[in-house]
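Q: For a teaching handout, I want to show students what a protein-ligand complex looks like in token form. Below are the inputs, and the small molecule is adenosine-5'-triphosphate. Please produce the holo structure.
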Amino acid sequence: MLKIEDLTVEVNGKILLHDVNLEVEKGYTNVLFGPNGAGKSALMRTIMGFSEYKVLKGRILFNGEDITHLPVDERARRGLGIMMQRPPDMTGIKLGDLVKVTSKGKKDPEALAENLDMKRFLDRDVNVGFSGGEIKRSELLQLAAQNPTLYLLDEPESGVDLVSIEQVGMTIKELLAEGLECPGERCTKGKSALIITHTGQVLDYVQADRGYILCNGTVMCSGNPMKMLEEIKNKGYQECITCRLNR
Ligand SMILES: Nc1ncnc2c1ncn2[C@@H]1O[C@H](COP(=O)(O)OP(=O)(O)OP(=O)(O)O)[C@@H](O)[C@H]1O
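A: Here is the structure, written as tokens, with adenosine-5'-triphosphate included.
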């Protein structure tokens, strides 16, 4: 589904990512770990196609197509959706109108908002004055309306209180399960996701398939995400440089 090959990226003349290789197969949920400033959000934003991130080398393939130089809207049309860590305020745009446009009129904003306890926010300007947790729920509401096939989720649990985390986690679980098919005993998973998490809280709700550790702008190793999380909690990131984490 998503394949990143030897990707090197600069912003304002500074190389933020180099020689990044990473994959998310159809139906997989992969996790991106890494210390602050490693380049995780930059990678997400590059995958989504934000124009300030210039690809100097390598490519991004989505369903076999080279999308490295496609604009954001084209990537969204092809099925990429992002929950940003810090999305911008959109003064003058009502959340309800955005949800309606994003779903192309196919989904009822009120019904989508009900699930996320966001009905009272539909008449408000997107993100303006929203609390940290409300922003996360607003981002999820927009993703539910867009219905992408690959979810890029940048720290979905950050700023979310311990009660609301269940709501956020369960919503992500439901979104990723859409299209889940279980012919006979075997299930084919629905959507794909790449999730950035520091705490791993979201992994209490979503089963992760593979973890990647990004340090200093490049992927240092990949492996079992739960083992990686355990290692990071116990030992921090110092070992990732030499890629000695248990996999
Ligand atoms: N538009 C930009 N212009 C200049 N520097 C940038 C830009 N975007 C990101 N950076 C820098 O790139 C580095 C990586 O940032 P990024 O947000 O990707 O880190 P991160 O791994 O997501 O960190 P965190 O875990 O703290 O969210 C940081 O030093 C950041 O200041």
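A: Two things your students might notice: The first helix runs from residue 40 to 48. The chain has one domain: 1-179+189-244.
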